Amino acid sequence: MTVLRIVLLIVHFVGLAAILGPFLDQLRARSKRITTAMVWGARAQIVTGLALVGVAYASDHEPDHVKIAFKLVIALAVAGVAEATRKRAEPGAAYWIVGALTLLNIVVAVAWR
Question: Which ranges does the record mark as transmembrane (predicted)?
Answer without folding.
Answer: 6-25, 37-59, 65-82, 94-112
